[in-house]
């Protein structure tokens, strides 16, 4: 789960820079944080993800 946010951020950055003239800079940190937060929020009550 921890690898999905950076991969999604990379893919979004690649698509935006390929098809538009906009270059994402510091916004990548915010986007990565948002995707991480959403991912953690979605799996917060999944009992099968508990280690202990």
Structure description:
The chain has 52 residues and is mostly helical. It has one domain (4-49). 62% of the residues lie in helices and 0% in strands. Helix 1 (4-19) packs across helix 2 (27-42). It is elongated, with a radius of gyration of 14 Å. The two termini are 17 Å apart. The mean pLDDT is 84. The chain crosses the membrane at residues 24-43. Keywords: Membrane, Transmembrane, Transmembrane helix.
Short description:
The chain crosses the membrane at residues 24-43. By secondary structure, this protein is an all-alpha fold. It has one domain.
Per-chain topology:
Blueprint: H1 4-19, H2 27-42
Helix pairs in contact: 1-2
Keywords: Membrane, Transmembrane, Transmembrane helix
Transmembrane segments: 24-43
Helix-residue proportion: 55-70%
Mean pLDDT over all positions: 84
Count of helical regions: 2
Integer count of domains? 1
Q: C-alpha Rg, in Å?
A: 14 Å
Please tally the β strands and state the result: 0
Name the descriptors.
mainly alpha; 52 residues; 62% helix
